[in-house]
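Progress note, project year one: complex with threonylcarbamoyladenylate.
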Amino acid sequence: MSPLVTRLLKADPAAIAEAGVILRAGGLVAFPTETVYGLGADATRGETVAKIYAAKERPQFNPLISHVPDLAAAERLGVFNADARALAEAFWPGPLTLVVPAAPGCAVSDLARAGLDSVALRVPAHPVAQALLRAAGVPVAAPSANRSGRVSPTHAGHVMGDLDGRIDCVLDGGPTQVGVESTIVACLGDDVRILRPGGVAREEIERVLGRKAAAAQADAAITAPGMLASHYAPNARLRLDATSIEKDEAVLDFGGRFADVQAASFDLSPTGDLAEAAVNLFAFLRALDATGAETIAVAPIPHEGLGEAIRDRLQRAAAPRG
Ligand code: TXA
Ligand code: MG
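Model obtained:
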């Protein structure tokens, strides 16, 4: 693809209005959501969605999440059953994506849906994302704004590092608040299935449903092809649930367990706060990777609450590269 001049704009009202014009004109705009930065394009046009894959160098056409400003806009694109509506009302705007049957005449392009008869919809809470979606006036397809195989960006600088010269503009809204991607929940029939753990904890979803949600199937790679095992990949190897540190290892700590170890080390949350750990996760993986260490030892992360999403991302980052 021919190189572009990528503009890094502070996300003030004038820049957001301009970014809306760029999106409507078929351009690529990276923008902050409360989870991670997204790489947005007009979801209704296959040719603009194709630019996302080219910029990210994504090897496959995985289905993408379409972002809209509110539930009313979402209901024009997808069919919401009682479970989907209850979850939308409880968690939107916020870090939840709902996969629902596509509405008849759904405006989201086949390419953004990867040919599926369902559609993934999200109403983000971040004020910049909200303002941009209203300015754009079209559903915005947006995967995380990183090159394929890299960890998701939580700062505008991460986006520039991966995509400078490949997209039209980056709206800088500061660091993101949640730090891991949205929880993806499929409401396609009687059962509700969590396809990807994320910023809304399973326990919160089950509280709203009043029952257990099904886990992603073992063949989730087929139902959600974007969830390739090694999707979130730093260059370094990750050694998870480390209880001691070996020579030359860098350390991704949690709760101060390895505070006394002499090594390149970042603590996701010295106080053991999982929300703080989620915010720091991707930035610290990038920083430890940049030290050139061959292995990053990762302290045990609890399984409950946001720990499920953090552990999921770490497991993907640790998976052998395909
Ligand atoms: O927090 C987030 O969700 C971020 C921000 C930018 O909103 N976005 C994000 O998008 O993480 P992405 O493209 O990295 O992840 C989209 C996931 C993929 O795993 C994809 O396979 C799944 O959503 N997905 C999309 N449509 C689907 C569908 N119809 N059925 C099943 N899975 C779907
Ligand atoms: Mg991603």
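The mean pLDDT is 92.
Residues 143-144, 152 surround magnesium ion (ligand 2) (CB under 6 Å).
No further modelling is planned for this target in the current period.
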